[in-house]
Amino acid sequence: MTKRAVKRKQDVEKCFPLSFKEALKDFDPARVHDQNRNPFSGRQIQVLSGKEDKLVPWEASREFVEEKLDVGAKGVKEVQVYDGVGHECCDDMVEDMTSFIAKHCL
Length: 106
Known about the structure:
The protein has helices at 2-7, 12-15, 18-27, 58-68, 91-104, and strands at 44-50, 76-82. By secondary structure, it is of the alpha+beta class. The protein folds into 2 domains: 1-31, no CATH class; 39-106, no CATH class. It has a two-stranded parallel sheet with strand order 1-2. The N and C termini lie far apart (34 Å).
């Protein structure tokens, strides 16, 4: 969060008071290494992103999704980034969502 705020020239202390940042340390999935406390452990998670998305750029999420979103040994994580797609849901995304749900959630 802080990196994103700084990049957008936001006042980090105003946007994220110290008390808020301290509280997040106990709940932030990116910092939870105990699988018993990890809210994503054992889950089926699909991340779909448009490569040209200007509102929520893939690069702003990539590190968390690829390196820190840990579903554990029993979970499933699929990540798809679509070339030429912005902040929208395209037909390929709908197809991929349908397949993911049918395969992992039903």
